[in-house]
Prior knowledge:
The complex is a heterodimer of chains A (200) and B (179). By secondary structure, chain A is an all-alpha fold. In chain A, 74% of the residues lie in helices and 0% in strands. Chain A is built from nine helices and no strands. The mean pLDDT of chain A is 90. Helix content of chain B is 78%, strand content 0%. At the A-B interface, α1, α2, α6, α7 and α8 of A face α1, α2, α3, α4 and α7 of B. Chain B: InterPro entries: Gate_dom, SpmB. Chain B: The chain crosses the membrane at residues 7-26, 46-63, 158-178.
Amino acid sequence: MINYIWVFMIVSGIIAAILQGKIDLVTTAALTGAKDAVAVCIGLISILVFWLGMMKIAEDSGLLKKLTKVLRPVAKLLFPSVPENHPAMGYILSNMSANLFGLGNAATPMGIKAMEELQKLNPEPHKATPAMCTLLALNTSGLTLIPATMIGIRMKYDSANPTDIIGPTLLATIVATGGAVLLDRYYRNRHFRGINPYKK
Amino acid sequence: MYEIISAISNYMLPAMIVLIPLYALFRKVPVYESFVEGAKEGFPTAIQIIPHLVGMMFAVAVFRDTGALDFYLQALVPLANWLHIPPDILPIGILRPISGTGSLAFVESIFHTFGPDSFMGKLASTIQASTDTTLYVITVYFGAVGVKKSLYALKVGLLADLIGFIASLVICTIMFGGM
């Protein structure tokens, strides 16, 4: 699916540029996009280095294990394929809590670390596992208690009640996340019927 | 309620930065060594993401900057009318999963035209805030571990975005009334 979307975007861009007789738009856009992407990754370096360092301390001190113990019922329900005391669980739960409290730049490193731990359980490293897909489903639907960024933007535009949107946003994101979890479960069962993705 | 949660959010980061090392020190963990050990992984991980993100973001930029996106959005206006969705709202729903900054530009233009406290402004805010940029999250997370086959993850992410969009429409109409 990603292949089709990718080619679709590029081809329609080129056709649009040709129709307007401005083919150089394609080159400019491609290079701008590439430059922005590298800039985003460079920006990620400091965040990743800092939080992966912090989280290593949390792991070594047993703090992560404690968190896992407290939230075990939730984790087991969502990630039945991850062994109970696996470090991946600790990172998954830190990622979820960071998202919930709107700590965006801490959530990404924790999520990436969780992916790395899940990758250790993966017999086919180039292919996603069901647990990875569930983690992605939770992250793409963006479950958060307070939409702080949006409130900030509303304040910038002199909103009289910038926090008015908290209620509807929370409801909408709960619906979307619930939908994501159910869809993930549906596609997981369909995709992995009769096969064990953790065995070669 | 908002004050409580936002206070927790504000205090959580500093608290974590202080309490994690403090607790570890109490448990006799060589904290500084641990930190450096873990932090070492940050750089290669960030570098590993570059090819994935460049691949994705250049395609999005070509799609957006050449006017192809505008063309499709124009083509969708009749669909929006037929579904009784305000035509200014549809671009936000379509762009949100592909480009967070792209859809934000449409939200800001609605703030300009209708004001942030209008029905349109609140609806736009809700759609923008209730979900994350699916394409970016999938690229970064799978890119970081070198997974190329993402199976059904993208499908689930996009369908969930659609559910979120519809939910935002319904919820805002009920809470703030009228289109």
